[in-house]
Amino acid sequence: MSYHSHQEFQNRSSKLAEIRKLGIEPYPHHYEPTHSAKVILEEFCDGTPLADSESAAKGETKSVTIAGRLILFRAMGKNAFAHIIDGTEKLQVMFNRDLSEMVGLPKDSPIPSLKFIEKMIDLGDFLGLEGHLFRTHKGEVTLFVKKVTLLSKSLLPLPEKHSGLVDKEVRYRKRWLDLISHKEIKDVFITRSKILLILRKFMETQNFIEVETPTLQHLYGGAAARPFTTHMNAIDQEMYLRISLEISLKKLIVGGMEKIFELGKVFRNEGIDKTHNPEFTEFEAYAVYWDYNDLMTFTENLVEHIALELLGDTKVTYSHLESGEKTIIDVKAPWKRLSMKESIKEYAGIDVDACSDADLRKILVNETDLLPAFIQKSPRGILIASLFDEKVTGKLIQPHHITDHPIETTPLCKPHRDKAKREEGLVERFESFLLGKELCNAYTELNDPEIQRRLLEEQALKKEGGDEETHPLDEEFLEAICQGMPPTGGVGIGIDRLVMLFTDSASIRDVLYFPIMKN
Question: How many CB atoms lie within 10 A of CB 7?
Answer without folding.
Answer: 7
